[in-house]
Amino acid sequence: MSNLHLNYESLSNVLDPVKKPQYTPSEHRSGIVHIGIGAFHKAHQAVFTDDVLNMHGGDWRITAVSLRRPDARDQLEKQNSLYTVVEKSDGEISPRIIGAVEKVLVCPEDPQQVINTIASTDIKIVSLTITEKGYCQKNGTLDTSNVDIAHDLNNLSAPKSMPGLIVAACAARKLNNANGFTVLSCDNLPHNGKITQNVVMRFAEKVDAELASWIATHISFCSTMVDRIVPATTSADLDEVKNLIGLTDDAAVICEPFRQWVIEDNFVAGRPQWEDAGALLVANVTPYEDMKLRLLNGSHSALAYLGFLSGFDFIHEAIANPRLLALTKKLMDEDVTPTLNVPSGFDLDAYKAIIRTRFANSQVPYKTTQVANDGSQKLPQRILAVADHLISGGKQPAVIPAIIAAWFQFLEGQDSHGEQHTVNDPLANTLCPLALKHKANDTKQVQELIAASQIFPEGLIANTEFINSIEHYLAKFHAKGVLTTLAELN
Fold this sequence. Notes:
- This protein is 47% helix and 13% strand.
- The chain contains 21 helices and 14 strands.
- The strands form four sheets. A six-stranded parallel beta sheet has the order 5-2-1-6-9-10, with helices on both faces.
- The model has no long low-confidence stretch (mean pLDDT 96).
């Protein structure tokens, strides 16, 4: 087995039948800046773009930006930004080499370089996968108390946040009398394009009213819905990739075969022909967004918390448990489905079945703790919005209180065996001590966590039956464990 790294020089040594770019990557320039490069972007938007480059060519490669660490740059730089995507399902493995990424910039090392890159008229699209917390938003608009926002408002030449970076680049474009670009949010936030527009505009208004007016005229903000399960890459995955392609690839990613991308078609400076790669370009993303966030992401979070507390390390193990599978179906059918506006002709039952099959894919193991990260940022749109919709219509949720109770117990920082685990959440320093302090008092724990998190809609807080139900399940989980308690639901 060769010890060579994957790069332009070694590309010809890639083993058959691994698919390779049908274009010469170095002959195509970047037309896209992507902020927040990680495994998901590499397995999703970059793959769609690579497909378009294979079919049509064009200057649509991607200059990626890391807002925090140099890891992705360090992995890809020695590989000429080539990397492997391996699609895996039970019984099938399909590797391919992706050439869509041109380079990776690290914002903290040289923020002006990133600003200048986005300000270049070569760039037509700025896309985002920065996770929910990267939007620096509260209730859909700019959170001015965010430390990065406070920094950027006083240091716009060296921004740390996405809003600061985009506004700084827009200022440079305005100064140069250049055209605008499209901002394309690809994170799991409802109305993600509108939220992006809100935070950028509010930031710009605080910097310069004329600049804010320029942005309103020259920049478009598109919502998208993205879907593909992409777990964290392990050392065993990298060893397997080396055997598959015959070269070392430190930047490889593993994913499921399924992929979906629904895009609001509101581009001001052109775009790749992503529809030829299977993307759906629509006027309104919201129905697809709601289905995905509530059915897939909501169920994912449910399996993460309930599965972890049941002793399961991976999502596919959790969904294989009959009680957790039954809860997932109940969540989808009784809680989520009544809140959806399903597009005409869309087979919702088939979509739900596909989601459960995807969760069961043991070849793409997704750790319950990874899905459980950032619950305070994810649960409002995945779970709480569903409960709020139901209760405002006079109906109590069937299983959502159990999911919230599981999150509260997860915040205690102990697994099913009493072993300590780390809670990764922006509010962890606030919520975890409260969860632990009131572990022996279920009512107090629920009251304190709801109050401190500040993510529960007023209609839920005021609904005594809903709050009592959370307390009921939390008490049962503490006394009997999750799986025994869930037998009462099924």
